[in-house]
Amino acid sequence: MHILLIEDDLDLGASLVRALQQDGFTVQWLRRAHDAPLQLDDPGCSAVLLDLGLPDGSGMELLRRWRRAQAAAPVLVITARSALQDRLGGLDAGADDYLVKPFDIPELLARLRAVLRRTAAQSGEQWQFGALSVWPRKCQAQLGGQPLELTPREFQLLLALAQGGGDVVPKRTLAQRLEPLGDPMDTAALQVHISNLRRKIGVERVGTLRGVGYWLESV
Questions:
Q1: With the C-alpha atoms ordered 55, 20, 119, 162, is the resulting torsion angle positive or negative?
Q2: Buried-state track 188-200, b at ≥16 Cβ within 10 A, e below 16
Q3: What share of the chain is helix, strand, coil (3-state, %, to 5)?
Q4: pTM greater than the 0.85 cutoff
Q5: What are the pLDDT digits (tens) for 76-88?
């Protein structure tokens, strides 16, 4: 899963990048509001960690702009602003969680995982889709209690489908999730990975909306 980190503090930003990577995430780190996307429409982004006090603008304004544009990616605010009014304002503006600095990085990671679980409509570390079980942190999956031998790309594809919570995930989103730090994977390569994943978890577990995308069935 890919995280967009917007944080101007060099020490904290570097620590968060290391911690997120150790927890299995890929990370893009930006330090200015000007560098942040005007629209949070990058299909490769699983979640955003957003500082409010940026040197050239307001993180709150970024958050409001994204939500006005119907951006669905979850946003976890990380800020030194601890007043009740600030916290209420952040949550009302569309933040999915609000964490006040200084904080312990393990708590931030736990809150981030919780936000991602809610996005995928799951309640625990084990995500369940019928007979299919997925452990995002462990990069493991089982079918009917038996371990699945998935390549890293196949697991990332399965995880991207699982994050959809049964909704159709557009092809563009899947292609970007498989290459979060580069150009999206081409359609032909994506279809090959979809075919390989279906062969391992069952054709009936990956639905297709022709020309649009795929979804994960709970069967």
A1: positive
A2: eebeebbeebeee
A3: 40, 25, 35
A4: no
A5: 999 998 899 989 9
